[in-house]
């Protein structure tokens, strides 16, 4: 399915990862950022850890086809419909033979908003999920950590870039977006995925 992207594949063991730094040109990426900032109903959700509720350090919005549900950190998300900008981006992914039916949007207001270590390995995603991650706005460090060897890989995700994690990536690697105090600009990240019933 992703054979046409082979020239964009990264050399990372136990993974299938593609990175397209200029998937959207700067003008198009700027336009999508502004539209999504205003189109999506951003919320600061909560997760439960060890019986206590904690507000997540970013804003989120969950969208997809009718009836699509997704559960992570014991929180079930009911998908809202696709916004016009999200539909346009999904059409661009369809041109790469990707067929997502949902997207989790994260809005990082500045460098103090973050995402902790995790894997996208929920049962609804299947055994070998394909996650297509679109970055808009401030460049941020995206860190991968191998679960067995603790090897780390750092990718600086550019404005308008597309990162695709496929194959066994979610089995062998965790990933995170750490805090960066020097980053003052916001970032929107969209992780398109296929949810299976």
Oligomer: single chain
Count of separate structural domains: 1
- Biggest sheet statistics: 6 strands, antiparallel
**Broad shape:** globular
- The CATH C-level name is Mainly Beta
Strand-residue fraction?
A: 35-45%
Radius of gyration: 16 Å
At the third CATH level, what is the topology name? Answer: Jelly Rolls
Q: Strands of the largest sheet, in order across it?
A: 1-12-9-14-7-4
Count of extended strands: 14
Helix content percent band: 10-25%
Mean pLDDT: 94
Structural class: mainly beta
Task: Specify the number of helices.
Answer: 3
Distance between the termini: 21 Å
The CATH level-2 architecture is identified as: Sandwich
Task: Summarize the model shown.
Helix content is 15%, strand content 39%. The protein is mainly beta and 197 residues long.
Describe the 3D structure.
The strands form four sheets. The protein has a six-stranded antiparallel β-sheet with strand order 1-12-9-14-7-4. It has a four-stranded antiparallel β-sheet with strand order 8-13-10-11. The protein has about 200 residues and is mainly beta. Strand 5 and strand 6 form a beta hairpin. It has a single domain (about 5-195), classed as Alpha-ketoglutarate-dependent dioxygenase AlkB-like (Jelly Rolls, Sandwich). It is built from three helices and 14 strands. The chain is globular and about 35 Å long. The protein has helices at about 25-40, 85-95, 170, and strands at about 15-20, 45-50, 50-55, 60-65, 70, 75-80, 100-110, 115-120, 130-135, 140-145, 150-155, 160-165, 175, 185-195. The longest helix is centred in the N-terminal third of the chain and has 14 residues, at about 25-40. It comes from Aliidiomarina halalkaliphila. This is Alpha-ketoglutarate-dependent dioxygenase AlkB. Pfam families: 2OG-FeII_Oxy_2 (PF13532).
